[in-house]
Amino acid sequence: MCQSWQVKKVFSPADFGLGKLFYDISDAVIAMDTTTGRICLWNPAAEQLFGYSSEEALGMLVADLMPVEYKEKHSAGVKAYSESGKGLYVGSREALALPAVRRDGQTITIELTINPANMPGLEKFVLAIVRDTTSRSQMEKSLAAREEQLASAQRIARLGSWEWDIKSNRITWSDELYRIFDVDPSGFEATYAAYIERIHPHDLDLVRSNIEAAFETFESFEFDHQIVRPDGTTRWVHSTGEVQVEQDVPVVMRGTAIDITERRQAQEAEARLAAIIQSTDLSVTSLTPDGIIETWNPGAERLYGYTAEEIVGKPYRILVPDFELERHYKLFDSVRDGLSVGGFEMQRVTKQGSMIYVSISAAPLMDSSGRLVAISAISFDVTSQKSAERASEEAFVSQRLALQRMEQVDEMKNAIMAAVSHDLRTPLTSVLGYALTLQKEDRFTAEQRADMINRLVSNARKLDRILADLLDLDRLARGTLEPQRVEANVTKLAREVAGNLEGPVGAVQVEGEDVIGNVDAPKVERIIENLLVNAVRHTPEGTPVRIRVTVGGNGILITVEDEGKGVPDDLKESIFEPFQRGEALDHSPGSGIGLSLVSRFAELHGGKAWVEDREGGGAAFKVLLPT
């Protein structure tokens, strides 16, 4: 026990000097005897912070307030101070941050300063002033987690952000923006001048004029420009910005930059390909799987005599003489079966009725699901080569020209296939393709048009869902999304979402009576939609997915059950983290955002989301929404 009467006298509550300050101060104050390591004084604030009464604390080892891993180091420090009068943290101006253990076993975070008593008779004592920083540490960890989530989203979207404090000329860049510009944050000073130095000379006037206009008009800007990285390579970025104004004076400008280099390169490649097709002497056409001509370039006009207006929409067989029909059908049947063919020499009939020899190469164009959507055909005139075969000298010349042209054909075929196949792999290209087809063509039956519209809407919904998920993920990371609760029929919401879900009719079964509650209806719809989309993706075709809405003791419980493979135990928690994907039955995993948003939207309601094994196989995803 600590028996120092000097300490008790100096810090007596009857003393209106140090004693009154000791008992009235809001921070915990602890005195320790360095010869024993035991507590000699313990003020009311220390009682409240650590949970020990003064009677319990006096005589305790200070080490008893520390986690196990800190006790040995503390004891060594006390011994060293007792022997030498010097300590690593005693007398330091900087507060020491470390964990501590309360009487109830709870671990808290504290900051403390330690100083010698420096009073007559108290040379062996030190005083510690302790402050609880648990809430601040938790807030700092939460903020760091949100910042990491935002940085992760920016990396995936390849989107960097910046903010310019105009008054102080201080510019802040996000980590992704440093990556886009390929500069090291530790060696790069983000100023307006440094930014301008990295703009491509061709775009300097464009960048300056947009920023100057924003200063003058206070309007936002949006434009594409090139930057030059330190290694000399150039990249295309799409820049946006807006101005914050106070009393008609711009004070802050902030914005984003997205790396669009690959997109610009693809656009330029498409433009070059279109220019090649328009300027080449080769006949380049595309046909429907049924053999109807869809496109017709100038080379085809020169070869066959028909203009595009005359022949588009007509069957390709009008170019085929009757004696070549069997070979023609055999060739295009092979293409419909997925084969690319090249170098077939056949006779064709021009508009004027002339018979010509052509060399034909054809290839199938497939969509992302492997379905044939068009046939590409490239041909050129080999009539003169055929005639020249009668003479050896002419035959040699014609063979050399034919070889050169065949090389051009192969290059052209590969270029077309690469560009068109790339477009068909993305939902956006599908949306554009079907929209243009519906806009320009009126030859389809109502059933065909309905099918195209359904596919267009399906791909548009996929893009809209991914974009909405990314935007909500960003808003959640920035803490700008709040629930807007209204009274709603949650069971009815489930029926509506299930009814609008793509897939076989009846694939989703909604169970349960009507359940009414105060919820954010749009967010609940998103919860249900993401759970159903996930379940359908991981459920064998023809197997039902069930959704049930019930009332529990703590709120509304939404349960979605499927009969798929289920979720492994080691993924049942991480599957709700952003960008975690499971393997779908069709090997086309989702964006990795849907289940994360389910969990975040549930948390917005004060609830939670989890997954359990379904009795009989499969998974049961559950969301509890307190009301």
Can you describe this structure in just a few lines?
By secondary structure, this protein is an alpha+beta fold. It is 41% helix and 25% strand.
Fold and architecture overview:
The protein is of the alpha+beta class and 627 residues long. The protein is 41% helix and 25% strand. The protein is built from 20 helices and 22 strands. The strands form five sheets. Strands 2-1-5-4-3 form a five-stranded antiparallel β-sheet. Strand 14 (355-366) and strand 15 form a beta hairpin. The radius of gyration is 37 Å and the shape is elongated. 26% of the residues are buried. The model is unreliable at 411-426 (pLDDT under 50).
The percentage of residues in β strands lies in 15-25%
Number of strands: 22
The residue ranges in which pLDDT falls below 50 over 5 or more consecutive positions are 411-426
The major beta sheet can be summarized as: 5 strands, antiparallel
Structural class by secondary-structure content: alpha+beta
How large is the radius of gyration? 37 Å
Give the strand line-up of the largest sheet.
2-1-5-4-3
Q: Report the principal-axis shape.
A: elongated
Mean pLDDT: 80
Regarding quaternary structure, how should these chains be classified?
A: single chain
Specify the number of helices: 20
Distance between the termini: 54 Å
Helix content: 40-55%
Task: Reconstruct the topology from this structure.
Blueprint: H1 5-10, H2 18-24, E1 28-33, E2 38-42, H3 44-50, H4 54-57, H5 68-84, E3 96-101, E4 107-116, E5 125-132, H6 134-157, E6 159-165, E7 170-173, H7 175-181, H8 192-197, H9 204-217, E8 221-228, E9 234-246, E10 249-259, H10 261-279, E11 283-287, E12 293-296, H11 298-304, H12 308-311, H13 325-336, E13 341-349, E14 355-366, E15 372-381, H14 383-388, H15 392-424, H16 427-440, H17 446-478, E16 486-489, H18 490-500, E17 508-511, E18 516-519, H19 521-537, E19 545-551, E20 556-561, H20 594-604, E21 608-613, E22 619-625
Helix pairs in contact: 6-17, 10-15, 16-17, 17-20, 18-19, 19-20
